[in-house]
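Let's sit down with a protein and look at its sequence and fold side by side. We need material for that, and I hope you will provide a protein of your own picking. Once you have written the record down, we can walk along the chain together.

***
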Amino acid sequence: MPGPDVETVERVIPAPPEPIFELLADPRRHRDIDGSGSVRQAKNTPDRLSLGAKFGMSMKIGVPYSMVSEVIEFENGRRIAWQTRPPSPLGARLGGGRIWRYELEPVGSGTRVRESWDISQEKVKAIVRPARKRTREAMTRTLERIEEIVTS
């Protein structure tokens, strides 16, 4: 899946895939794992994500804003991805579309966790491409936070 519009980081976390996946599948915990510092609060969320589930998120990068995500890939315990868009119909036509994907693979006594930032369906790629390096750094911090939570 890697390509010019996909940035990926991975980390082997010394834990089984189940607690990692449960953390990812609970949108109320996304603020706890967010390495960017932009996630503020989940809103209108199910207790646990599943294919087709939608959830909102209050965000802040300089100024507050909101996004709505829909789970577009779901393999329990192994893979979850959601696509984010602005909440208004006009906003969704003008922007959004990036996909956040997590893939979990058991390896030895741990789990390889791969996080991807996929902008292949982003409406205005030229606006988000410059964030690639910063996004990669934030994703690395996210995987560190996931490890801290599931191993503590």
Summary: The mean pLDDT is 90. Strands lie at 6-13, 39-43, 54-61, 63-75, 79-85, 99-107, 110-118. DSSP finds five helices and seven strands in the chain.
